[in-house]
Write a structure and sequence with these properties.
The complex is a heterodimer of chains A (about 280) and B (about 160). Chain A is built from eight helices and 15 strands. With about 280 residues, chain A is α/β, with parallel strands linked by helices. Chain A has two domains: about 100 residues, Translation factors (Elongation Factor Tu (Ef-tu), domain 3, Beta Barrel), CATH 2.40.30.10; about 170 residues, Nucleotide-binding domain of ferredoxin-NADP reductase (FNR) module (Rossmann fold, 3-Layer(aba) Sandwich), CATH 3.40.50. Chain B is of the alpha+beta class. Chain B has a single domain, classed as Jelly Rolls. Helix content of chain B is about 30%, strand content about 30%. Chain B has three helices and six strands. In chain B, β3 and β4 form a beta hairpin. The longest helix of chain B has 26 residues. Classes of the chains: A alpha/beta (about 280), B alpha+beta (about 160). At the A-B interface, β10 and α6 of A face β3, β4 and α3 of B.
């Protein structure tokens, strides 16, 4: 099809974002905000799998890749948690209810929820890495009877950097899952754990032979977690990590997100440790 | 609370993960140096600068390792729980604690008298070597974790 043929002109451009209106916002921490958005055109949103990401556009500035941290497809609602670190993410994080952002997506692979059915599930989220795991946790709770033991380990820089504190408290109060929270440092008013997330693994209750692990966070945290879990007897194929690379086009055309032979935007961001381990061992890849 | 009961013919110290599997004869020699200690929430197990008189093996509870700096609020850099070991200042001259350790909940430990323990390790070098082979991985792990924390990996 030639680009000037009518069908090509009418087809949505792959880079064109759809306008979404901010309907709610919640300041998680001083630099991290959760936004709830709905299509300006109304109706249901596109199907989203836990673990996928969108390109979120601040009009006039540009777009960044942001993990989906919640969704309600029939209502068209999409939830994004954004940390303000650059010009674009600061603008997105500052968006108020009523303002319009652009969204295109979702892109990438999701967490393999089907593989988790009938098995123990260990979720390890560090820092902002908890955001793409939130839909996993919500799905695990929604279909709780379909899974074995559910263990959640959350790491953060300090107690005041923890995300979703209200939900964390509700999850911790439940008896059908176990949540461990640890921070890198804390003041005297913190009575929880202090230390790296891998220190919490020996306390997690799961059967290594029938467990699936979903982990997201800083790369070194995921690598150390995967190494520790492999040491506890988990097969590398049962450990899934969500990788972060520089997404631009988000559909495997530009190569900005290439990680070895993998395009993280299309084959990831969720990949098995069995596939990632050789690449994670290569410095500066 | 009573100290844990000794298994028949053995030392109750051997029930602690740090000592489990060590030579029973060495554990029996260690037993007279140990006493059960209890700490209420908020109690200090040790304070920075104090003589490190004991090795604490944590049996129950939770302990915060705190750095004290007059110009800043106290900072908890690690918490320890059951089965873990509190510090090695008792072994390394000048045998003074380098941090505060405070109970975050009711905590129970085996406190092993440091001077006696050092003498025992000196007098029984082979068993002392086995003992230090248990301690060194604790030191190495805490050093590695401290390095990771130093990277401030969750910072933007």
């Amino acid at each position: 099809m030639r680009p000037d043929e009518p069908a090509a002109i009418l087809a949505p451009h792959p880079y064109a974002p759809a306008p979404y209106r901010v309907v709610a916002r919640h300041a998680e921490t001083p630099d991290t905000t959760t936004l709830v958005l709905r299509p300006v055109a109304g109706g249901a949103g596109p199907a989203v799998a836990p673990g996928q990401f969108n390109m979120v556009y601040a009009f006039g500035l540009g777009e960044v890749a942001v993990s989906v941290s919640g969704h309600d497809v029939p209502a068209g609602e999409i939830v994004h948690t954004v940390r303000s670190v650059g010009k674009i993410s600061r603008s997105i994080g500052a968006a108020r209810p009523g303002e319009v952002l652009g969204i295109r997506g979702p892109y990438g692979t999701g967490w393999p929820m089907a593989e988790a059915a009938g098995r123990d599930v260990l979720v390890v989220g560090g820092g902002l890495g908890l955001a793409p795991l939130r839909p996993v946790i919500l799905e695990l709770l929604r279909r709780r009877a379909d899974f074995g033991r559910v263990e959640i380990i959350v790491g953060a820089r300090t107690p005041s950097d923890l995300l979703y504190t209200g939900e964390l408290a509700r999850w911790r109060a439940r008896e059908d899952l176990r949540v461990q929270v640890t921070v890198d440092s804390a003041g005297r008013d913190w009575y929880g754990d202090v230390g790296v997330v891998t220190r919490r693994l020996p306390d997690a209750r799961f059967d290594p032979a029938k467990t699936v692990v979903f982990a997201c966070g800083p790369e070194i945290m995921m690598r150390k977690t995967a190494e520790a879990l492999a040491g506890l007897g988990l097969p590398e194929s049962a450990i899934f990590l969500s990788m972060e690379r520089n997404m631009k086009c988000a559909f495997a055309q530009c190569g900005h997100c290439q990680f070895g032979a993998a395009f993280i935007c299309r084959e990831g961001p969720v990949l098995s440790y069995a596939r990632l381990r050789p690449m994670l061992a290569v410095r500066e890849l | 609370m009573m100290a844990p009961a000794a298994p028949p013919g053995g030392s109750p110290l051997g029930e602690h993960p740090f000592l489990r599997g060590l030579d029973p004869e060495f554990l029996r020699a260690l037993q007279p140096l140990a006493r059960s200690r209890e700490f209420a929430t908020g109690d200090h197990l040790v304070r920075e600068g104090d003589v490190a008189e004991s090795l604490h093996l944590i049996l129950a509870g939770k302990v915060a390792l705190e750095l004290v700096n007059a110009e800043r609020p106290r900072l908890t850099v690690q918490t320890l729980g059951p089965g873990e070991v509190l510090g090695w200042s008792w072994l390394v001259p000048p045998h003074r604690w380098r941090f505060d350790a405070r109970a975050l909940k009711p905590t129970r430990t085996w406190a092993i008298e440091a001077a006696g323990l050092r003498a025992l390790l000196e007098a029984r070098p082979e068993q002392g070597y086995r003992f230090l082979l248990r301690l060194l991985p604790v030191v190495a792990e805490r050093l590695e974790h401290t390095r990771i924390q130093l990277m401030d990996i969750y910072a933007p």
